[in-house]
């Protein structure tokens, strides 16, 4: 990539970062089923209309998991806030994009998509190089609570392991036959509990102790789901060289 208007998007270790991205290039097809399923869960957990898993390539960003933004499959690197998310180990958050747009990317794309909020967490290759991001977005201004920020980080770790697993599968690695069934059962149980908590919360007046308790319970359940998925994937990937 040779941008002139947005040079701040290119980290000093870009050559090494692109080398770390190579094993994942086989995943460069937008909207893959496993990642679409994953970001669908992420969007529900955060109660946001948009969730994406991205790979940030030399000149563009491909959304291999896409919930809520079907018109964006591959975008220029300078048009995506995911290009910014890979520059930091910390959560990248733009709470009111219209009032305070990101200065590192083209602001008109976010305006065209009527985006009001962005939060993204970088995804890393095993050598520590950032290759993409997991993000959630909304059409109105928002702010993640500290607990929600930790949850997004936990879910980003799951996304990292999914990236590793899919790359390994493409290279010929095989997983235990029982894994998909076990993971699906875990996900479905947690989604049922999350839906129940969300329904109960609808009966509560906002800003009451009960409403806050239901919200915290949803976050606890979501973090349990993320940590369980991460552990299961780590066990399987222990066999990957």
Walk me through this protein's architecture:
With 241 residues, this protein is α+β, with helices and mostly antiparallel strands. It has seven helices and six strands. It has a six-stranded antiparallel β-sheet with strand order 3-2-1-6-5-4. A hairpin with a 6-residue loop joins strand 2 (60-67) and strand 3. Helix 2 (33-46) runs antiparallel to helix 5, helix 5 (146-170) runs parallel beside helix 7 and helix 6 (179-201) packs antiparallel against helix 7. The longest helix has 29 residues, at 209-237. The protein is globular, with a radius of gyration of 18 Å. The protein starts with 13 loop residues before the first helix and ends with a helix. The model has no long low-confidence stretch (mean pLDDT 87). It comes from Hymenobacter negativus. This is GAF domain-containing protein.
Write a compact overview of the structure shown:
Helices cover 45% and strands 16% of the residues. It has 241 residues and is of the alpha+beta class.
Question: Characteristics of this structure?
Answer:
alpha+beta; single chain; 241 residues; GAF-like_dom_sf; GAF; GAF domain-containing protein
**In one word, what is the shape?**
globular
Mean pLDDT: 87
The profile of the biggest β sheet is: 6 strands, antiparallel
Oligomer: single chain
Strand content: 15-25%
Helix content: 40-55%
Number of strands: 6
Question: Alpha-carbon distance between the termini?
Answer: 31 Å
Kindly name the structural category.
alpha+beta
